[in-house]
Amino acid sequence: MELPFAEPYRIKMVESIRCSTREEREKWIREAGYNLFNLRSSQVFIDLLTDSGTGAMSDKQWSEMMLGDESYAGASSYYKLKAAIKDILGFDHFLPTHQGRAAENVLFSVLVKEGDVVPGNSHFDTTKGHIEFRKATAIDCTIDEAFNTTIDHPFKGNVDLNKLEDVLKSHSREQVPMIIITVTCNSSGGQPVSLANIKAVKQLALKYDVPVIFDSARFAENAYFIKTREEGQQDRSIREIVSEMYSYADGMTMSSKKDAIVNIGGFIALRDQELFRQASVFNIMFEGFLTYGGLAGRDLNAMAQGLYEGTEFDYLKSRVGQVALLGQKLTGYGVPVQMPYGGHAIFVDAGRILVNLPKEQFRAQTLAVELYLEAGIRGVEIGAILADRDPVTRENRYPALELLRLAIPRRTYTNDHINYVAVAMGNVYERRHQITTGYAIEEEAPILRHFTVKLSKI
Predict the structure, then answer these.
(1) Tens digits of residue pLDDT in 113-170
(2) What is the number of H-type helices and E-type strands within the chain?
């Protein structure tokens, strides 16, 4: 018999978690304004809110933490991370930041101005937030297949080249500071971008003299999908694929809390020395000195080690495989999810489940609350609340997809936990027709409202 796959690690330490009662959860979610971000972690049994900073670090990463150089300037930890970025990603210039949105804040402070347009593939919430905060416009150029969860397209994160060229043709070069490629594309369901598509975007960018910036939070998972799904890539290593991916990039922002498997940290990496010089000014203003960027030396060390571990094939096979396991179980229960299964999360199609609920009552948020009430599981809405209001009209924006994201932390939960989540979601799906009312907004911030919004039950 062929041996089954087993995780390429063993558990050295455990953390206790408690499953609460239904009555407790009803009280807690009401006090939280029906916003799962407002719950205390002790009120959550299985936390799938995000895969950002929630993974389990390895023994080697913890060893690196003890070797951290905490010098204010010129620490050896900075040079260790600089060498890892050069080795894996190929960039000569980099700036550490405390996380991915900080990297966006620094870089966009140089590149984005009022009236600009920034095309890309389904910009994530903080990316769009930083663009719109500067009174610019994010234009989604993702392929149409991404917005139909039933289509089994291998690279739903791909940029539609015709949509992209229409943007580049209809705006002056001065209005388009960059093209953003998000790998993998979170907002479309953790979907990858093919190597061929990345190369084609770069060729189009060269034609119009526009730089290409990667939002790189899950670049290693993207490389895994290229290796396993794209013709002609099967015999290449993950790092070989990563190297080619970034040969088509002029720069990148990185939330290292994902594919570098650390609890905090990020960076900007660039080819152009002048752009690096300009960004350095803002890094000092917002983050800290150039060689620590708001982080301790121990964090830089853990990040360097994590970049190597995160680009190992066996680790990625285990990580993406666990996500797929949840997808397979949910599909078996009839629960509609974004197909094919994503790299870091399963995206449940709330729009196809709560079909009788008006979109104005926030279907994905309603489903997220129901899953928490069912079993103490915390997911996150990727839908109308996250989409925010139109910055001009101030009307709610209703995206094509209303999704409940169940993001799997790295090396954190066992497959028994995954089975528990699947059964709980299956139970909610079975009683979907009994869910007849959703939620209304009581309080909201003017931008990125989903983090702090307060709701009332209708």
Answers:
(1) 999 999 999 998 889 999 999 999 999 999 999 999 999 999 999 999 999 999 999 9
(2) 15, 14
Scanning 159-237, the segments in alpha helix (DSSP H) are: 161-170, 195-208, 219-229
Count the neighbouring beta carbons within 10 Å of the beta carbon of residue 294: 18
- Going by C-alpha positions, the residue among 456, 222, 176 that lies closest to residue 342 is 222
Q: Is 450 a catalytic residue?
A: yes
pLDDT, tens digit, for every residue of 53-101?
999 999 999 999 999 999 999 999 999 999 999 999 999 999 999 999 9
pLDDT for 207: 97
Candidate list 215, 250, 259, 388, residue with the active-site label: 215
Task: Show the domains of the chain with their CATH numbers.
Answer: 22-51+313-457 (3.90.1150.10), 59-309 (3.40.640.10)
The active-site residue, picked from 5, 27, 60, 72, is 72
- Of 91, 98, 105, 106, whose CA–CA distance to 299 is shortest? 98
By the 8 A CB rule, do 216 and 181 touch?
Answer: no
124 in active site: yes
| Candidate list 257, 258, 329, 417, residue with the active-site label | 258
Quick one: which of 360, 394, 388 has its CA closest to 452? 388
pTM for the model stands at 0.95
